[in-house]
Amino acid sequence: MKVNHHALELEQNYLFSEVAKRIRAFQAAHPGRELLKLSIGDVTRPLAKIITDEMKAAAEDMSHAETFHGYGAEQGEPFLREAIAGYYQKRGIAVDPADVFISDGAKCDLGNLCDLFDADNTVLLPDPVYPVYYDTNIMAGRRVIFARGTKENGFLPMPDADVHADIIYLCSPNNPTGAVYTKEQLAAWFAYAKENGALILFDAAYEAYIRDPELPHSIFEIDGAERCAIEINSLSKTAGFTGVRCGWTVVPRTLQFDGASLHDMWFRRMATKYNGTAYIIQRAAAKVFTEEGLRAVHGDIDYYMENARIIKAALTKAGIHSVGGGNAPYVWMECPGGADSWTYFDYLLNSFGIAGTPGAGFGAAGQGWLRFSSFGTRETVTKAAEYLAALI
Ligand code: MLT
Question: Could you tell me if the CB of 107 is within 6 A of ligand 1?
Answer without folding.
Answer: yes
